[in-house]
Specification:
355 residues; alpha/beta; ten-stranded mixed sheet; two-stranded antiparallel ribbon; 12 helices
Length: 355
């Protein structure tokens, strides 16, 4: 298992360190290699995605990413900003399918801003198309128009083939779960998503065992708060998926609990927590590493097809939560406050106890 570790910026190095402890417990650290991405790569190579990092990622079987970004880079030209490294590696590896599970651990129902009766037992999979849409569409940019005023342009664009491949991923995922898929679009006003709905409907005919529904994105945002358990698998485009998955993370109590997998057509993947780099708490040992650890668990499930290791890691996380340990983002007065490093150590301890 050749695994590339890209710690990135902010809390990225702290949280990836905890996941590497899991690899060490499985005696799998001999084939890992590190490379910079984001702001740290810009500092070293004047590029948020150096050629060496992309080459390493291409050669690896899977990639574990921490986080990218820092406010201090906001004034750089856009192509030099940390986030461009993330967009470019997704595109360079053709990681078009982003899987973001939002699962409510029973011990964390108090951490959600919604009533326990609304979120208890929540288990949603959001599938976000990751390499198309308005983030990549051309033309884009800021220019001066005919009225001599600045004008910003971004283009929402999807080709049939891009929609078809993410639709197959969504339907096949639904088949392995509760055979229920909701496709989210804005087909009433956006031609791009009118095409999306048409293609999902047509492909759905090849999956008669899956119940397909359609929902406008504004209604989906409302329904995620009103009755989130009505959903099982949600499939949507890049920008809608970005927003809805972050919204869903708060149903679970903290975005620090939300892992993700970004996969290509052969299930090679980049695994990363859904949260950002949080530069304001970097180096303070307060970050929650569980999303990163759970992302590593997804790596074993989706890329390495090792369900046993996936379950061992997930169960270790559950045991630590059951024992009452919490980082600051999920802490309550009846639990035990610990830091990032100790949370990683406790998960490893529970894992080793199961090996």
């Amino acid at each position: 298992m050749k695994i590339a570790i890209l710690p990135g910026d902010g809390i990225g190095p702290e949280i990836t360190k905890q996941a590497v402890k899991i690899l060490d417990a499985f005696d799998l650290t001999k084939d890992i290699e590190y490379a910079p991405i984001g702001g740290s790569a810009f500092e070293l190579h004047n590029d948020p995605l150096p050629t060496g990092t992309l080459d390493l990622a291409k050669k690896a079987d899977a990639i574990l990413l921490g986080a990218v970004g820092d406010w201090k880079y906001d004034q750089l030209p856009r192509e030099k900003r940390p986030e461009q490294g993330l967009l470019r590696i997704r595109q360079g590896l053709n990681l078009f399918a982003n899987l973001r599970p939002a699962i409510m651990f029973p011990e964390l129902t108090h951490a959600s801003s919604l009533k326990a009766s609304v979120v208890s037992g929540l288990d949603i999979m959001i599938i976000r198309e990751l390499t198309g849409d308005i983030y990549f569409g051309q033309p884009r940019g800021i220019s001066v128009n005919e009225n001599n005023e600045r004008e910003g342009v971004n283009t929402m664009r999807y080709a049939e083939s891009e929609i078809e491949r993410i639709a197959h991923v969504a339907f096949q995922t639904a088949q392995r779960r509760k055979q229920k898929l909701c496709s989210v679009d804005k087909a009433n006003v956006l031609e791009t998503t009118e095409l999306w709905r048409e293609i999902f409907t047509n492909i759905g005919k090849s999956y008669p065992d899956v119940q397909l529904s359609h929902m406008y994105v504004d209604n989906a945002a409302m329904q995620l708060i009103r009755d989130p358990k009505q959903f099982d698998v949600i499939a949507t485009g890049n920008i809608f998926g970005d927003i809805l998955s972050d919204q869903a993370s708060m149903l679970t109590g903290s975005i620090g609990m939300l892992p993700s997998a970004s996969l290509d057509a052969n299930n090679k993947g980049m695994y990363e927590p859904s949260h950002g780099s949080a530069p304001d708490i970097a180096g303070k040992d307060t970050a929650n590493p569980l999303a990163t650890i759970l992302s590593l668990a997804m790596m074993f499930k989706y890329t390495f097809k090792d369900e046993a290791k996936y379950l061992l890691i997930e169960n270790a996380v559950r045991q630590v939560l059951q024992d009452g340990y919490r980082t600051q983002d999920i802490f309550s007065t009846d639990t035990k406050l610990i830091g990032c490093e100790q949370m990683g150590d406790l998960v490893v301890d529970r894992l080793e106890g199961s090996l």
